[in-house]
Amino acid sequence: MAYGKDPALSASQGKYWGMFVCWLLGNGCLFGFNSMLTIEDYYTYLFPKYHPTRVVTLTYQPFILATTAIFTYHEAKVNTRLRNLAGYTLFFLSSFAAIVLDVATSGRGGIAPFVGICIITAVFGIADGHVQGGMTGDLSLMCPEFIQSFFAGLAASGAITSALRFVTKAAFENSRDGLRKGAMLFFSISCFFELLCVLLYAFIFPKLPIVKYYRSKAASEGSLTVAADLAAEDPACVERLNTKQLLLHNIDYALDMFLIYILTLSIFPGFLAEDTGSHSLGSWYALVLIASYNVWDLIGRYIPLIEQIKLRSRKGLLVAVISRLLLIPAFYYTAKYGDQGWMIMLTSFLGLSNGYLTVCVLTEAPKGYKGPEQNALGNLLVLCLLGGIFCGAVLDWVWLIGKGW
Q: What is the rounded distance in angstroms from the CA atom of residue 241 to the CA atom of residue 376?
């Protein structure tokens, strides 16, 4: 057997350490961008006329979508290890650039610094286009727990940045200098964390026995994307479904991912940050809503670990995803007539359902396919996810109709 003399041992050795590393790598995938979203009060203070929360989100999307689409098309020939390392390195450089820009401009507002922020956001998008699809494809050919841990890490980055924002907002005065100190602290932590991810993926993750086992197994099934991490022979030429065939066989899963995120991003974060009115929580209100979403999104991604309540039916998943569209009128009428308690509850459900359905789809879809097909399907589903995010970010502007620019 080409992928291990003792398959049972190799397939489990280092599993829990691998899950922890995947969680950290998932964190690193969105930590920098979530930092930009979570300090929206600082950017709103600096750029009050430019709708920074919405513009930053919308700027991010075309670059991550285009990068992911290119890699999805060429997925079978791309060196996954180099792709992911390049992405995490770009994350580190972007976070560092945000600090340099703020220091260079002395924390001033204006169009030039705002354009700089948008350029940094675009680089974050290119980095995420490298990593999110690359890691999902790489982990899809391994055990489902790795995918679950990676996407739980994605959600945890939002929860962690929200918690840090509460601490910095309470520690520093609610002033320009206080907001600026909090922002710099965020990006300093982000720089450190992204560098840690580069080291983990380069030197720790590929040496785990379970990772070597699954990559060798994928190579034996015809995968060309894992060869750089293996001391293996040339993979055999094994017949596999192409990307178009995989899409046709999994069109419902692709639609699931698209609809989950078009709904979520049409509400989060722009609507929550700008269109929910004024309440007794004052300037804390938007932060509480964003934190509620992030925490429940994280919880939702762990619920599928309970086998009895994990949704596996393809029809059941599609019905659940479509039924979430009812949240749009629910948010509209709650913002117009409801109080902050109802809005927090709705936001929490938005996060919970987003995390739960994402993990259910991504852990069920790859089952029954060969390694190269699982890698391709993982990239394809992430492309649909990002397409939903992009369309949702565009639709988020619809909430401004009738309110003036």
A: 9
Categorize the per-residue pLDDT at 316 as very low, low, confident or very high, splitting at 50, 70 and 90.
Answer: very high
pLDDT at 230: 45
Helix ranges, 201-311 (H):
209-220, 243-249, 251-265, 270-274, 285-302
What is the number of other CB atoms lying within 10 angstroms of the CB of residue 161?
A: 27
279-307: buried (b, 16+ CB within 10 Å) or exposed (e) per residue?
eeeeebbbbbbbbbbbbbbbbbbbebeee
Average pLDDT, integer, range 128-149: 92
Backbone angles phi, psi at 349, to 5 degrees: -65, -35
Q: What is the mean pLDDT of residues 375-381?
A: 93
Those residues with Cβ within 8 angstroms of residue 285's Cβ, 6 or more apart along the chain or in another chain: 276, 278, 279, 340
The pLDDT of residue 81 is above 80? yes
Contacts of 224 (CB under 8 A, 6+ apart): 76, 77, 235, 372
Q: Which residue has the higher pLDDT, 225 or 29?
A: 29
DSSP 199-227: HIIIIIGGGSHHHHHHHHHHHHTT-SSSG
Q: Distance (Å, rounded) from C-alpha 271 to C-alpha 45?
A: 18
User: What gap in Å lies between CA 234 and CA 380, rounded to an integer?
Assistant: 25
pTM of the predicted structure, to 2 decimals: 0.84
Mean pLDDT of all residues belonging to the chain: 85
Phi, psi of 230 (to 5 degrees): -125, 150
Residue 115's alpha-carbon distances to 105, 304, 308, in angstroms, are 12, 41, 49
pLDDT of 7 above 70:
no
